[in-house]
Amino acid sequence: MLTFTTIASLREHLAGCRTSVNPAPTTGFVPTMGALHEGHLELMRRAKNENSLLVVSIFVNPIQFNNIEDLEKYPRLIEQDSKLLETVGCDVLFAPGVNEMYPKPETAQYDFGLLAQVMEGAARPGHFNGVAIVVRKLFEIVEPDKAYFGEKDFQQLAIIQRLVEICHLPVEIVPCAIVREADGLAMSSRNMRLTPQERAVSTRIYQTLIEAVRLTERNNPAALKQWVVNQLAAEPFFAIDYVEIAEDRLLQPIDTWNPETGCLIFVAVFLGKVRLIDNMRIF
Ligand code: PAF
């Protein structure tokens, strides 16, 4: 694996790979903020399997954090991450610093309409604009054929699909299923910040979602949402940020079931200072 920290050296290397091999290699790209876990590694295995070149980026993107403490506490584990990347056959790691990515302040403003006004968009103002800026920049630097994103961040995935559409970016977005711990907790770099007690009860998020999907037939969406709220509120370690039952396109709340329209349950819960999100498909 080769590691690059500057845009120019990465571009030069990738251009060399693309001209020296015939047929030109296809590039699979997995953008990350590091603190890699099995969920990331699954995206990478798939990307490696479907492309001749696997490029991974590690960049803790300051402009997508609306909470300074969250940015400061975000784990930075580049040596451990590099070793994990070797195990999945990563060809190229791009790990730029903040000045390399943002030599001057970013002013781009994206309009994702209703999609950005609910759930994570409402709870974390400016978050998706920051994600869109960095992802677009990374796509323009790496020029991947396919880019891989996990469905745990379902709304982020929808935003990136929309970004690709509105900016006509020549990349295929590949959604990948949530990877879970043995007890059901969705894998996340934030999980390592949970205390042992918080970690032990965190599985209730998954158990509640599973049970809620089973109860769909007996409840309308409002009643089911209330049931999920009650279940989560009963756990003293949890502070609910939101619970939503929404359709799978613009992620707007629904008030009746329609099996023809896909829909999911979304939750965001604080355990102490750690905010976890999860979701599960109903239809
Ligand atoms: O999902 C993440 O890790 C980040 O939001 C991403 C897509 C790498 C952009 O910084």
Question: What order do the helices and strands come in, and which of them pair?
Answer:
Layout: E1 2-4, H1 7-20, E2 27-32, H2 38-50, E3 53-58, H3 68-73, H4 78-87, E4 92-94, H5 98-101, H6 119-123, H7 127-142, E5 146-150, H8 154-166, E6 172-176, H9 196-214, H10 221-233, E7 238-247, E8 263-271, E9 274-281
Parallel strand pairs: 1-4, 2-3, 2-5, 3-4, 5-6
Antiparallel strand pairs: 7-8, 8-9
The structure holds pantoate.
What does this structure look like?
The protein has 283 residues and is an alpha/beta fold. The protein folds into two domains: 2-176, HUPs (Rossmann fold, 3-Layer(aba) Sandwich), CATH 3.40.50.620; 189-281, Pantoate--beta-alanine Ligase, Chain: A,domain 2 (2-Layer Sandwich). Helices cover 40% and strands 19% of the residues. The chain contains ten helices and nine strands. The strands form two sheets. It has a six-stranded parallel β-sheet with strand order 1-4-3-2-5-6, sandwiched between helices. Strands 7-8-9 form a three-stranded antiparallel β-sheet. α8 links the parallel β5 and β6 (172-176). α7 (127-142) packs across α8 and α9 (196-214) packs antiparallel against α10. The longest helix has 19 residues, at 196-214. The chain binds pantoate. Pantoate (PAF) binds at residues 31-33, 61, 64, 131, 134-135, 153, 156.
In short:
The protein is of the alpha/beta class and 283 residues long. The chain has 10 helices and 9 strands.
